[in-house]
Specification:
Blueprint (H helix, E strand, L loop, with lengths): L4 E5 L6 H15 L7 E5 L2 H19 L6 H11 L3 H17 L5 E4 H11 L11 E3 L2 H14 L6 H15 L6 H9 L5 H5 L1 H9 L3 H33 L15 H7 L12 H8 L11 H62 L2 E3 L3 H9 L7 H6 L4 E4 L7 H15 L6 E5 L14 H4 L10 E5 L2 E2 L4 H24 L6 H6 L6 E2 L18 H18 L7 E5 L5 H12 L5 E3 L9 H14 L4 H15 L6 H4 L13 H5 L9 H11 L9 H17 L4 H10 L14 E5 H4 L6 E3 L22
Parallel strand pairs: 1-7, 1-8, 2-3, 2-6, 4-5, 6-7, 9-10, 11-13, 11-14, 12-13
Length: 770
């Protein structure tokens, strides 16, 4: 009998998309009416479109006996045991139903699915019918911080908290650009942990005397521990002093030994560091207290004193220090960050106020809102709205699901599993969990077997790699097996608990190659630290040249980087070595501000409201003549005339209507500028211009049509919007996060020496016991 829930533990290239699509097709072929009762959720819009296209294409192929759909047909036949003619007829019927009732073709992103729930539950959640849902958390939070700063007044608590935040930043060498840093810090309000505890925090903030009492209590507890430790250390030193032994040279390791170790603890500066080995030795053995060169009589005296009191007193001192260090440091850290927490609360309130004024709901709040709605209920009424019609659920990229998303989904999944003929899938790969910044929690997939009984759950590993060549798979098997072994050893040596989670996550690291052809090539090259960057860039250039000489097309070569910071260095090196012989394709190339037409429009807009801005006028003139008109005139000749004469070289219609143009609506104004500067004649600009119009329309939906305000927002964020890239023949440079799910023939990874964990800038949220 088929289990209600199947977990596919996938690996890169193991046929995950094929598995999901074939499972979906099997369900609709088995019962074509189930097309409206299946929900498949993925992580990205691109994955959603690919999945829909795959399902429709293969249903058509099965229905029409196409050769390329034979693997899907065989999979369906194996799972259903239906006759061939029935499978093909049912596939045709399912295809017709899906295309004629496309709204019920529920292959969605997690965000889109929960947004649909939100709309259905608007009344229950006290949300207005014309509510606008916004995805741009960062932009809203930045605006809220600006409002908060603009409203600062002398004596206000917020000013005190911001001042404290500035002091902390200066103390930690974080720089002086505090507004941007506050905006960055303020993004914590969108973290799941903050949202889950927001109500409890609000109660604390609304309690007028809470923080004064809390701070007082923390200081008392911290000082009690520090004073007690200091007192114990002083008592120990007093015993030594009364015995006339006030000379570190008489004790083990002299000035760097046990005497000075105890003396430092009298200075009211507790530490949680593990004591040096000689301290533990002195606790266990009185003979180890005196120095080796200590006179015999004094040595005997010290040993006797140690056996009577020093050993035991030091043991009690160390026990107290280590047992109370956690509480002491927790008090310190809490006091240190309390102002930041209160500042965070003010930012959260400012965001809420802004959203209320704009009748806006942040999509990122959907999960916490639904979680509160479904709390303490096994069969919440939510299912009456969206769950009653669902029978099968498929969740892709499960390793990137957050805890709060899973808790919301789990109740829906249980509801489906309770139906007799329900078939549910979860697909994921713990090893590909790279979205922790979006609260993705790999441990959910790692531990999911513990949540269901064996009668409910089937685990199926997908360990055959259909994508990569044999030698590459063998290299990965060897490399990652050693890497995980080394990592676990280090965790054990550092006494890190739960290291077995890592063992579990990578227990199926070995993949089997589908192609046993001995093809594929991997090269690892290490460089000394001297001239490191230059050597890496030279090696990268040499590798690119070798690939081109072997006949590979540029678009089959991809360079993976950890951060965007190194992209410009790579581009500059390639331009110097290859010139125009190669093209570079990156996300930066598809940003709106990379467009000639869009840049001309922005400069023309800016000049309309700042006609005395000679720099803007010069930039516009140069861009218009050299890149739009393709003048052979050099920059000096174009810009030689000072003053108002510079306008004479811009389009005559722009100059003649210069004073009237700002009176037009912003959309009409952009239309006019597009015509006046002849931008429609430019090649390859249509996609950028269309995307620019979309961006402008979206901006105008929530903001007044003020040119200055629009340009300010353009420089802050709108210019970073991108268009969809076509298949351009160029070497691609892409970050690791953006490369997920993509494949290329040749992959190069320069500067492969980044830290696995950030050592600074992390905000860690944790619960206190009391």
């Amino acid at each position: 009998m088929e289990k209600a829930l199947t977990i596919y533990k996938a690996s890169a290239g193991s046929g995950k998309t094929f598995t999901l699509a074939s499972e979906y097709i099997t369900l609709v072929v088995k019962n074509s009416q189930d097309y409206s009762r299946i929900l498949a959720v993925t992580f990205t819009n691109k994955a959603t479109q690919e999945m829909k296209m795959r399902i429709l294409t293969q249903l058509y192929g099965i229905a029409h006996s196409l050769k390329e759909s034979q693997p899907y047909f065989e999979q369906v036949q194996t799972k259903t045991n239906l006759p061939e003619i029935t499978i093909r007829e049912n596939a045709a019927e399912a295809l017709s139903l899906l295309t004629h009732h496309y709204n019920y073709f529920r292959v969605l992103t997690i965000d889109a699915f929960f947004q649909a729930i939100l709309r259905n539950l608007a009344r229950e959640l006290n949300l207005t019918a014309n509510l606008r849902i916004d995805l741009n958390d960062t932009q809203v939070e930045a605006q809220a911080v600006d409002n908060l700063v603009n409203d600062l007044e002398e004596g206000k608590d917020v000013l005190i908290w911001i001042s404290d935040y500035i002091d902390r930043n200066i103390e930690d060498n974080q720089g002086w650009n505090v507004i941007d840093q506050i905006k960055d810090f303020g993004k914590n309000i969108f973290q799941d942990f903050y949202k889950e505890n927001k109500d409890a925090l609000d109660k604390c903030f609304n309690n007028e005397g809470f923080f004064d009492n809390f701070i007082k209590d923390l200081r008392i507890r911290r000082n009690t521990i520090a004073n007690k430790l200091t007192s114990m250390a002083k008592e120990l030193m007093s015993v030594i002093s009364k015995a006339n032994l006030d000379n570190p040279a008489l004790f083990n390791r002299g000035t760097k030994g046990i005497y000075n170790y105890i003396n430092k603890l009298t200075q009211n500066k507790p530490t949680g560091d593990l004591a040096p080995q000689y301290v533990q030795t002195c606790i266990e053995n009185a003979d180890k207290w005196p120095a080796g060169k200590c006179p015999k009589e004094i040595k005997t005296f010290i040993i006797d004193l140690a056996s009577k009191s020093l050993c035991n007193d030091l043991k009690l001192l160390e026990e107290y220090r280590l047992n109370n260090w956690k509480e002491y440091q927790s008090c310190n850290l809490t006091l240190r960050h309390l102002s930041q927490l209160r500042l965070l609360h003010s930012i959260s309130e400012a965001v809420d106020e802004l959203n209320k004024d704009m009748n806006r709901f942040m999509l990122s709040n959907t999960q916490s809102l639904l979680s509160n709605l479904m709390k303490d209920s096994d069969t919440p009424f939510v299912f009456e709205k969206i769950g009653a019609y669902l029978k099968h659920i498929m969740i892709d990229e499960f390793q990137d699901t957050s805890t709060i998303q899973w808790n919301n989904f789990k109740k829906l999944l249980i509801n489906c599993m309770s139906q007799g003929d329900s078939h549910n899938l979860i697909v994921g790969d713990v090893k590909q969990s790279i979205y922790r910044w979006r609260q993705g929690d790999w441990r959910l997939l790692n531990n999911i077997e513990k949540e269901y009984s064996t009668e409910q759950l089937a685990i199926k590993p997908l360990n055959t790699n259909y994508r990569s060549e044999e030698n590459i798979i063998l290299f990965n098997n060897a490399f990652f097996s050693l890497a995980i072994e080394q990592s676990i050893k280090e965790l054990q040596q550092d006494n890190i608990s739960n290291f077995e989670q890592l063992t579990e996550a990578y227990k199926e690291i070995i993949q089997q190659p589908k192609k046993n052809n001995h093809k594929g090539y991997v090269s690892v090259k290490l460089f000394p630290s001297d001239n490191y960057e230059e050597d890496v860039l030279n090696e990268l250039t040499k590798n690119i040249q070798q690939l081109l000489d072997l006949g590979y097309r540029q678009k089959s070569i991809t360079i993976l980087v950890r951060t965007k910071g190194v992209i410009q260095d790579i581009v500059d090196t390639f331009q110097h070595h290859f010139g125009s012989a190669i093209s570079i394709v990156s996300d930066e190339a598809f940003r709106l501000d990379a467009s000639l037409a869009v840049n001309v429009i922005i400069l023309a807009l800016r000049l309309l409201v700042h006609p005395d801005d000679k720099l803007t006028a010069s930039k516009l003139l140069k861009l218009y003549h050299q890149q739009v008109l393709k003048d052979s005139t050099n920059s000096n000749e174009i810009l030689v005339h000072p003053g108002d004469n510079i306008f004479e070289n811009l389009p005559s219609s722009y100059i003649e209507q210069f004073k009237q143009l700002p009176n037009l609506s912003l959309i009409d104004l952009v239309d006019q500028l597009y015509e006046m500067f002849g931008l429609k004649e430019l090649e390859g600009q249509s996609a950028y211009v269309c995307a620019f119009y979309d961006t402008l329309n979206e901006y105008l939906r929530d903001n007044p049509a003020d040119i200055d305000d629009f340009i300010e927002e353009w420089e802050k964020s709108l210019s970073q919007n991108t268009i969809q890239s076509d298949e351009v023949d160029g070497i691609r440079i892409i970050t690791i996060h953006k490369s997920k799910g993509l494949e290329y023939d040749n992959v190069l990874i320069p500067f492969c020496d980044w830290e696995l964990e950030k050592t600074t800038g992390n905000t860690i949220w944790c619960y206190g016991k009391d």
